[in-house]
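Objective 1b: paired records.
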Amino acid sequence: MIERIPDDTDLPELTLRGMLLGAVLTVVFTAANIYLGLKVGLTFASSIPAAVISMAVLRHCRGANVLENNMVQTQASAAGTLSAIIFILPGLLMIGHWQGFPFRLTAAVCGVGGLLGVLYTIPLRRVMVVDSPLPYPEGVAAAEILRVGELAREKGNGEAIAQGKAQAREIAFGGMLAAAVTLCSSGFRLLAESFTAWISLGAAAVRLSVGFSLALVGAGYLIGLAAGLAILLGLVIAWGVIVPWLTMQATPAADQTLPALAMSLWRQQVRFFGAGTIGVAALWTLATLARPMWDGIRTALEAVHLGNGAAPRTERDLSPRTILAVGLASLLVLLLAFHRFLTAADSGLGPLAYAVLVLGCVLFAAIFGFLIAAAAGYMAGLVGSSSSPISGIGILAVILVSLMLLAFGGAVPQLTVANEGKLAVALALFTTSVVVAIAAISNDNLQDLKTGYLVGATPWRQQVALMIGCVVGALVIPPVLELLYQAYGFAGALPRPNMDPAQALSAPQATLMTAIAMGIFHATLEWKMILGGVVLGAVLILVDRLLRRSGSGSLPVLAVGLGIYLPPTIGMTLVVGALLGHAVERALARRPAAGREEPRRRGVLLASGFIVGESLMGIVLAALIAGTGKEAPLALVGEGFEPVAQWLGLAVLVTVCFLFYRRIALR
């Protein structure tokens, strides 16, 4: 394996060709993520596919190197992640406040949120990337892929070339296997995407599920056993305790099955329980990181007096002066955006109330966004960007900003009373969209900085690449959203009469957050679940502290909250990967110490290959869906094949896990 590029080696990183390639990938990945997110509520991390494509393209260019490829994936991943804005903005059309996506306002929210997300995580780089034990599964996977690509480029070094080819085979094997499974499931529909069994205990319903995503198996392999068991605990709490208890208390609607009732209760109530646990765990994370965050800020300020050139190349962040200038400019644009938003709404507020409202929303977005940046980065480090619940952060943000506006409405009733409070709901959604953009980029930034740290990149150049990606993405997102809205419409918001509602994009997260905001202003939101999650989170934090003090291990509370909040087909698949990693580690522990490192590295590469293969095939399938307008253009079977497809998918998952174990632990 090649060594990390040393500090005294200054290779080309931010190149014109790299930025142009990154811009092209930005457009492609952003469009694909927006479509899939609005269609099924899921997006994919674009850093790994971007790294693979960059290496394939730039290998034909003279002077290309691992750091240049790293910058391309950094830029493209930022814009792909920024597409998480779709989890909230369509709500403005669903309530009838917007009739389309105004380019300037939408681009401003995306761009400013992205830039602030980059700036807020700069002081966290050392404490959460360099000195942190967090696994950062996708960041590590991207670094391994970049390293293997660099080894394959080396000339005249027979041992390096042989090593590079052997490692490339692991990635290729994992990638082709995952791509084939994804094609057979999401494409041909010969394999189901998950297996679900329902157990009825009287009026109680218990769900047992596992997904067949090899990318999630790979991510679970990389996150480790502690996080995997914590997610499993969250799944047991949600589907073994809360959901059965709620189904026993609830009365099904006419013709509603017990599984349908259980799913409805999980979506409408139990996910709020998980959001409460995530919220209190995020606050605890912020409290534990407060001192290191301050030390990082102080170190950055001290660097001003020493000069940026005094620090080693791999320790140079953007200067505090640059951070301050970009931050102030971003806040000014945000002020103008909120001013334009309220002006267009014709709020009828007096000048003083208007000014206080604009300033309050901007400060909320800026301050809460700063606080949530650390929590979002921590979650990305714990379970990866793809599995990090940005929509959960959006739920917390929309609750808090709605409560703030509700209090404001007590003094200025015009905001919450006029037109049934539609303006207040719209303003809550608009403010939350900024927070979601900040959280999404914070989530992605630290993952990319981990990749850069492992390969020896220059941090400030990566931060510039991330900003470029945010700006390009902000310009791409509005027209793509407008195009999809005009073509399909959203659930409850069709642009033209006589359109088929069955073809509308569901935008599930936007629908949920809109319902939350309206529930707060109309006093119909159920608070018991959120408060219950907060109490559970506080208890689990105490348990975690006791375990750490006794030396008995740890209990990642955020991971427990994720297990409650995430769909079980995602959470359980991460658990499968974590258990697979533990089984491999136990087998390797029986070997002499000198013989463990090489198979461990091959395990990481094979898991990374799973993520690569599924990501690339996901992009191909997304392009086919968008091009044909059909949900399943390659389907070879109908819905009646689903029961057989579930068992076939389960058999394939078990077989793949066995092959993984045999290839790494027994070879």
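Objective 1b, second protein:
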Amino acid sequence: MTEARSRVGRATSNTFKVLFGLAAVVAAGATYLAITDSSPGAAAQPGLLWLLIANLILIAGIATVLGLRVYRLVKENRETHGGARLRLRIIVLFSAAAAIPTVIVAGFLAVAINRSVEAWFGEPVRNVVVNAQAAARASVDDVKDDATTELAAMVNDLNTPDYVSALDKNPQSFRVDLLGGQAQFRDFARAAILSSDHNRISEWVGPGALPFRIPTEKWWRDAEEGAVGGIVDENEVIAFVRLKAYPDAYLYVSRPIPPMLSQRLALIDADNRRLREAEARRNSLAVVLTLSYIEASLLMLLGTAWLGMTAASRIAMPIGALAGAARAVRDGDLSVRILKPSVRDEIADLADAFNEMTDRLSRQTAALDRGRIDAEARSAFIEAVLAGVEAGVIRVDKDLKVTIANASAQTLLGFVYRPGELTPLARVAEEFVSASRRSIETGQSVDTSFKRPTEGGTMHLQVRVAPEYDGAGAVITFHDTTRLVLGQRQAAWRDVARRIAHEIRNPLTPIQLSAERLRRRFSSQITTDRETFERCTDTITRQVADIGRMVEEFSGFARMPKPTFGEFNLVDMAKAVAFAQRMATPAIAVSVNAPAHPIVILGDERMLAQAVTNVVKNAAEAVERKLEGGAKFGSVTIDVLEDGDEVQLTIRDNGPGFPAQDRERFLEPYVTTRKNGVGLGLAIVTRIVEDHGGRIWLGDNELVSSGARVDIRMPVQPKHIEEPAAYAGEGVA
């Protein structure tokens, strides 16, 4: 780009020099022609005017070339955000330095031109020319008047009888003695007598006589009328008159004008003619002189501007290059270097110092970059390790402010860590503060566990705080043991359920058989208080049946079957559960809000339908209890939602809702608020959901004043969930 601009600049410079030289030669030549000829009309010659007009067009072309150069500078200034300001200022200053005196001189020159033109065409000059012409004409008129006087005397003499008879008697003697004598005596160079048919009757020609001029028709008319015909010019005076004493005779005489007088008259006439022509070209003369000055001024202005541009290029361009290089270094480009000027001066020293500075900065920056890259590589490795760890990792400084937190820690504790932002540990996890402070103060690791309430229930965290070797902070590692704790509890409860079911199932059958046998055997024999006997045996049979059902629940919880995965439509399953519940409880509105399209997931449809049915049934029973208390309307809604690669079922009701404290314990076995409930329903639901890789949490129905909400969230394609080894394979013996 720079090389292309340099080539364009050189081509523009050469073009300007050629055109400027040509225009200067033409302007100088035209000005020389205009001022060397002192005649007023010389400067107004049409050829000179057109030459100046052509030269003005050439100067306009030069101005265009210069304007293009200035336009490129302005464009470069915009592109470089002020990189050509100094050059433009120098050009403006040079142009102003040339324009100001040019304008001042223009005023004086305008006055000078007007005065010069007025001097050329003023009244004194005109009077001189007119008076000279009048003087010359007066001399000619004197010659004419003298010739007229002599002509009259000669006519009188020729009209005497002696002359008339002499012409008839001796024409030769008349020609030589009489006619020639009269002509010589009266200073005529030629004398001739003509007849009306233009024949020369007699003629005398003296020395210096000019060629004979044939009389014109006007001369003849003037002679016939008794006047004197003829002509007076710068060469001679001719008179033509009729001789009345002769029957048919006309006298023709001529007298040459003296050569000096003739030449003076011709010169004066020529000057007068040129003066009139110059007056006719007076405006053209002013235009020529004005164009000469304008062209000289423009050439001076353009030349000065070009000199300013050249000076700007030699002075400002190195400074501009240095400023641009400094901006590049400011923006981080340390590879920029400045070309050394051809002339050794302060700017060259500055360029050397700048290049040495950027070279040193480049080496230092390269070393820093290598160190930074190594540090970033180590940091990236550590971050990758921390990101891949499922446990949460937090680093705190001695003021217990978080300086590092991996993704698992942010997910488990529900906060967002921004690098560089020191967040107090108390704001993130207040439970960690005491253990972290104790670890930093004692310099020993601290192991502890916490229960942390969340929207989905209580989270069990196993925490270890390790102090840093210099006491600058501590590293906190923790992981979620909620599922492990829940699994251990469920394993323990399944073992209890298996043992209870084993111990209770054996005597149930003999008890039931004995009660039935007593009823058959002694029912007819009892005559007194038979009703009491029947009631007691019915009670035994019914309680045994209830205990049997309880044992079946214990057995079912103790030996939960493995889910059989297959694809099914979750929306259809939810609608089927809602339909069955509507049939069971017509007084309660059971509805499903789901997308119109199918939601196909991978899971055990029977077990998930059992789990959802259990939750919906519990909700309906809670609503029934509220309706018995006087409520007017009961509803249960099932919302089916898609969220990326997971699905969520939300069951809401407008019943009394869950207790606010320890509500997550309802997901554990044998925890219930119902009088006749065993407390295994939600525990079984939790086990089914977890076997599908999902999670369940309890909450409040935010859409009504009171009510419960159960959220079940599962993956669309769950991974295989293996049963913990601690309770694998357990069942009822």
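The domain at 150-267 is CATH 3.30.450 (Beta-Lactamase). The longest strand covers residues 457-467.
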